[in-house]
Automatic annotation (TrEMBL):
Protein name (database record): histidine kinase
Top class in the EC scheme: transferase
One of the Pfam families matching this protein, by short name: HATPase_c
Alphabetized GO MF terms: ATP binding; phosphorelay sensor kinase activity
Originating species: Methylotuvimicrobium buryatense
Taxon lineage: Bacteria, Pseudomonadati, Pseudomonadota, Gammaproteobacteria, Methylococcales
SUPFAM superfamilies: ATPase domain of HSP90 chaperone/DNA topoisomerase II/histidine kinase, Homodimeric domain of signal transducing histidine kinase
Amino acid sequence: MIASQSVLILISVHGLNIVLPQEQLWLVVLSIASVNLYTWMRLKTDDPVTELEIFSHLVIDVLGIAALLYMTGGASNPIIWVFLLPLIITAIMLPPSYAWYMVILTTSTYTVLITYNIPLPAIEPHIPTTTPELMMIEKMTTASPHSDMDHFEMLRQMHEIGDKHYFNLHIFGMWFGFVFSAGLVAFFVVELAKTLRTQERSLAEARENALRDERVVSLGTLAASAAHDISTPLATIAIVAHELENEYPEHRYPDLHEKAQIMTQQINRCKQALSVMSASAGEMRAESGKIMPLTEYIDEVLSQWRTHRPETKLNLFINPLVPMNAGIIAERTLTHSLINILNNAAEATQDDLGIEFHASWDLEQAHIKIRDFGPGVRSEILELIGKQPVISNKSGLGVGLFLTCSTIRRLGGKIEFTNLESGGACVEITLPLIALEEANDITGTG
């Protein structure tokens, strides 16, 4: 901009022989150069550049342009459109509010320059040459007792009044065109920048989801490999446990026999879990689950959880927002996810207070809240839940919770973890529902 201003001043003064206040113009150019020198030194520091700082530099540019235009005719200067440049830059680089601030600044500056400016040197006086004008001169000369010189002077003044009138209309048209262009540019460029930011945010979320899904697939592959490797030694341990149970009968070795029975029960539980994993591997959501009424599904989940945690106190709150019930796809992985969250809450809460299970639903979504009365989740872990596996602790936060979050999101739901001010942690889950009529159409019944 400094180079362009300098070239325009030199061409106007030495090329077009236009009389301009050169000293004042070069002083403005020197001031803008000083600001640029300060900016160059500022960028040598490590301090981050803020949006307000960028906007302030653009404001300085607008004021510099205004000073140059003030001394070169103001709004009548043909390059008055240069005010659009800082506006376009503001709309592209900064939030929309700054763009509208720049619209107000440039429009106000343009308006002030219409009245307050140093006019450019007058152009050659307008001399009437057209036939109607000559006829008017002749008519006024024959009808008036004044001399020809008086008639010519009167006509010249009339033309000056007319030229001034049309000049004012020209200035108003230029002003209106600038205001309209400024608003139009600000609107479309702001919308374009907003669209680009939205697309960038969507791409970032897509990349994050792809990385999370890739990690889930990796964990699933490792789990399948581990299940295959564990099956053989687990069968060997089951045989050894059965032999120990026979070698130490209950009537002679009651303690050893009881421990052998406990070992056999736990081994059978592990084998059952591996069987379920093998049976459900590779199944799609509609194949691995069935459509159930939401109330029945909640009862089934809580019943399964009760078999593992019968000693934990459970406070159940059901608050449907609509009288009718809705259906849900009771996928096996969703059931395991809810049970995993209940187990985490049971391990973290106080024994005398237990946990709370809140369930409500409308026609489209089910809202589930599981709240414990423990110490809460550490802030550094709270930020990582659902994004990557975290180091396990006694609260049960680890790979299982990462898979839980991935499962709920894969089913189109949402999950959020928060620490309550009154103590404890709360998990809020939102799941999509299916109307029972639609569920009957899907299953072919009804």
